[in-house]
Design a protein that fits this description.
Elements lengths: L6 H4 L5 H14 L5 E2 L11 H12 L12 H15 L8 E4 L1 H13 L5 E6 L3 H9 L3 E6 L10 H7 L4 E7 L11 H13 L3 E5 L24 E6 L12 E4 L2 H14 L5 H10 L2 H28 L12 E5 L7 H12 L1 E2 L1 E2 L11 E5 L4 H17 L2
Parallel strand pairs: 1-10, 3-4, 3-5, 5-6, 6-7
Antiparallel strand pairs: 2-8, 7-8, 9-12, 11-12
The chain binds pyridoxal-5'-phosphate (PLP).
Pyridoxal-5'-phosphate binds next to helix 5.
Length: 392
């Protein structure tokens, strides 16, 4: 530990999977063919029309700062997207453009939380939320969730865990690491329950569009007047633009002004070239490219889910979105961290241990990211079976 860094910074946990990734790199350098199922980003390149739009933006010298909340044209285009895809009229002034969903999460938590305030979230869940709150001097209260509730927070849990300093509850649908959704009725109950506590409900929809069953849905469809709903989204996953660092949030009107001031100070503005490229991503021809990729992800899930179950992993809640399967490996090991390391050493397959997503039964779970083609998934499953047989 670096004794010169702040206590808050020292308390930030590492991503354990990064060690694994470094080791996978070494193994690759030694000539082994590692199959990467640990990486949480699409393997597809950014679609060509988006790259062309980025190049054109550079050639047209769009290299200066924009407004802190983003280009009005992009905010309008996202509003048009909600109208076209969901029939929703969202005022573009409520849409703020951010450096990835990560930027949106930082802005929103900074806008809501004072030192020692709390935000309620699920364990397992997306780990950065906990760390962002901690950097702000705030706290997280993690409610353990299981397959019984599709690994999602429920209104009953919110009631049980809400304290006087709790300001907000956070959920993600589809979720990382479980790929599970919150049903609209359950989300409605959550929202009403959080509203009764006079808090905000933050819904992370970064995997929106990467859903393999049911109708298109956004939490914004639940909005009523004077809402307490904050929706986070991003061009990273469905739109395939992870490295461009561009996302957005839809805020209740009363939060926009403070978020503007925070954005001015934290980021000045979201990346300009990425904003121009993102404008193109929302056009129908690009959306058709993304939808064909969703089909590829569906095929991967439809292969991997039964294959893992046959291998002996328990997967209690059906992963219906994102590109993750959170599998119970407790019949093989209750120390998923060591299990993942040994799997990598022995069979050159990289998966993420549960410990990266929280503490609740973390040793019993591993996350598979099906961000590789089916042919590679098939080899990975063969290798995993091999590994399990060797170690029984
Ligand atoms: C649930 C969730 N939210 C937010 C993010 C941040 O994504 P980005 O900053 O690339 O938009 C991720 C990234 O994996 C995620 O899984």
């Amino acid at each position: 530990m670096n004794k010169f860094s702040s206590n808050r910074a020292q308390g930030i946990k590492p991503f354990y999977v990064m060690d694994l990734l470094a080791r996978a790199g070494q193994l690759q350098a030694e000539g082994r063919s590692v199959i990467h199922l640990e990486v949480g980003e699409p393997d597809f390149a950014t679609a060509q029309p988006i790259i062309d739009a980025g190049i054109a933006a550079l050639q047209q010298q769009h290299t200066h700062y924009t407004a802190a909340l983003g280009m009005p044209a992009l905010r309008q285009k996202i509003a048009d997207y909600y109208l076209r895809e969901y029939g929703l009229e969202i005022a573009p002034e409520r849409i703020v453009i951010t450096p990835g969903a990560s930027g949106a999460l930082q802005l929103v938590l900074a806008a809501l939380l004072d030192v020692n305030d709390e935000v309620l979230l699920s364990d397992p869940g997306y780990p950065c939320n906990r760390n962002i709150a901690q950097i702000l001097g705030a706290k997280t209260r993690a409610a353990p969730v299981s397959a019984d509730t599709a690994f999602q927070l429920t209104a009953e849990q919110v009631d049980a865990h809400w304290k006087s300093r709790t300001r907000a509850a956070m959920v993600a649908s589809p979720s990382n690491p479980t790929g599970t959704l919150i049903a609209p009725q359950a989300l409605r109950r959550l929202q009403q329950c959080v509203a009764a506590h006079k808090g905000f409900l933050i819904v992370d929809e970064i995997y929106q569009g990467l859903v393999y069953s049911g109708n298109k849905f956004t939490a914004l469809q639940l909005e009523e007047e004077d809402d307490n709903l904050i929706v986070i989204n991003s061009f990273s996953k469905y739109f395939g633009m992870t490295g461009w660092r561009i996302g957005w949030a839809v805020l209740p009107e009363r939060l926009v002004e403070v978020v503007d001031r925070l954005a001015q100070n934290l980021f000045l503005a979201p990346p300009t070239v990425a904003q121009h490229a993102a404008m193109r991503a929302l056009d129908a021809d690009c959306m058709a490219i993304f939808d064909s990729r969703v089909e590829a992800f569906r095929q991967r899930r439809d292969y991997l889910l039964p294959a893992l179950r046959e291998t002996g992993f328990k997967i209690g809640a059906e992963p219906q979105g994102a590109f993750y399967i959170y599998a119970d490996c407790s019949d093989f090991s209750r120390d998923s961290f060591s299990w993942c390391h040994n799997l990598l050493e022995s069979e050159a397959v990289a998966v993420t241990p549960g410990i990266d997503f929280g503490e609740h039964r973390a040793g019993d779970f591993v996350r598979f990211a099906y961000t590789r083609p089916v042919e590679q998934l098939e080899i990975a499953v063969e290798r995993i079976i091999n590994y399990i047989n060797k170690n029984q």
